[in-house]
Amino acid sequence: MKTKKLSHPARQVATRTQQERCCAVAKNLLRHLGLKPELIDVFSKKQKQFLFGIIFDYPVIRAEKEKSIPRHFLDNIRRQLIEYMKVRYFDDPADTITYIDLATCGMGFIMAFWDYESKFQWVAATPAQLEAARQIKEKIGDIEAYYHEKGFARVFSMLYYLTRCYSQVNFRNYGFKYTWEASGIAAMRMKIELTSQDCVTKMFTHNGVKRRAFRLPFTDNSVYEPGWATVRRKRIFPRAKENEVLNIYIQSHVLHRYKERVDIFEATDRNFFLQSSLTLRQKVVVSDRQTFLECSVDSCPIGYFTFFVSGDDIVLKTFIPLLGEGTPESRKLHEMLPLEKDDIKYLGMDKLSFFADIDFEQIPSLKQALIDSGIWKVKEMIDGAFVKAYSIDMNKTMFVKKYFDKIMESFPQMPESELESESLF
After folding, report:
1. Strand pairing partners for 178?
2. What are the helix (H) ranges across 99-213?
3. What are the φ/ψ torsions at residue 93 (nearest 5 degrees)?
4. What is the pTM of this model?
């Protein structure tokens, strides 16, 4: 993202409390840089007033265009981002520098070393003071980089997550831009502007049926310019040219099935997982001549999108869970268990809530089959993820156990005599 070269901010005299706070943050920054915090003590009182006197205000978060984002969306994003910056540490938690510390006191201290040799504060500096300043500037390195990814990469990742949480493919999608601006005449601050992009639709005819689909955008963020989500054509058709791409469109049916089956997550998280799976974490999976686009949560597959290709567009038709017909995982599971499509749906195994509701210790053969087929990682992901509050449903567990025991009775088992003979070799 292109930004204008930063100029030295206007200055005002910081209060004693502000200077004390900035001094504490500066010592932590020195520790982060691999220097001794006591290096600060080398400087004179006047020099410290300069080092700790550049004031940076709290970040401002607002809509780029008035009324383009619902007020409660904007308030929630603003509140959650500021809370994140207050409790999350920049780099090593042992240095105890929160992102709010960095954005206010820390950036002022770093900025003080921009072209420090030409500043009048250093004219009367002793050799020891100049050497200390040189060491700090050398460790800081590219000062401007701290204003961007080097200093706030995780904050921008959080902002990416939040804006996608409130984005809806079939309505409006949100992104963000950021810069640093003068705050009044006395300070600087991080400015974040939330952008919006209304959905774009297109009609497609497939198997004689005409349906509308929504184009998937790639909205503003700290790294990429806004555009549209695509899939390299070569990933679908191996003989295609390297530079050819397919535009991603999503039918409403996909969104309904996705919501129905990914039922354990909040709507905001579902929005994020859908968009990240089709953009930053995009993965094409081929299973028995059928091709899918994978949907994942933290690199754990939770289902697949089926699609058809029309000209330069790839149109998502529906969402199927891991246990859906034709998926790599379901093929492996069906080799081990006599479960049919109707059984899966009747037991609720096509929904993520199944993995939260069932006590699998009561059904060890099912648990082992899920492990061997690669589906058990969904259970592990749910146990480790921040999802809706849930608890094991023993009534549902016993219902599944009885049903499972019944169908297993008709599943052909290898005679014990054959098992014994096999164990001899």
Report:
1. 192
2. 99-101, 107-111, 127-140, 149-165
3. -55, -25
4. 0.86
- Give CA–CA dist 245/163, Å, rounded: 26
The 10 Å Cβ neighbour count of residue 321 is 27
Range list of β-strands (E), 207-352: 209-215, 217-218, 227-228, 230-232, 245-251, 284-287, 290-297, 300-310, 313-321
Distance (Å, rounded) from C-alpha 271 to C-alpha 299? 16
| H or E stretch covering 119 | none
Q: Which residues of 66-87 are buried (b: 16+ CB within 10 A; e: fewer)?
A: eeebeeebbeebbeebeebbee
In this structure, what token pair is assigned to residue 245? 């791409």
Residue 90, classified by CB atoms within 10 Å of its CB into exposed (0-12), middle (13-18) or buried (19+), is buried
As a dihedral over the C-alpha atoms of residue 249, residue 255, residue 257, residue 262, rounded to 10 degrees, the angle is 120
Tell me the one-letter amino acid at 373: S
- The per-residue pLDDT string of the chain (425 residues; one tens digit each, 9 = 90 and over) reads 444 444 444 444 567 888 889 999 999 999 999 999 999 999 988 888 888 877 788 999 999 998 899 999 999 999 999 999 999 999 888 878 999 999 999 998 888 887 666 654 555 788 888 889 889 999 999 888 888 888 999 999 999 999 999 999 999 999 999 999 887 555 789 999 999 999 999 999 999 999 999 999 988 887 778 899 999 999 999 999 999 999 999 999 999 999 999 999 999 999 999 999 999 999 999 988 899 999 999 899 999 999 999 999 999 999 999 999 889 999 999 888 988 889 999 999 999 999 999 999 999 999 999 999 999 999 999 988 766 667 899 999 999 999 998 888 876 554 444 434 333 33
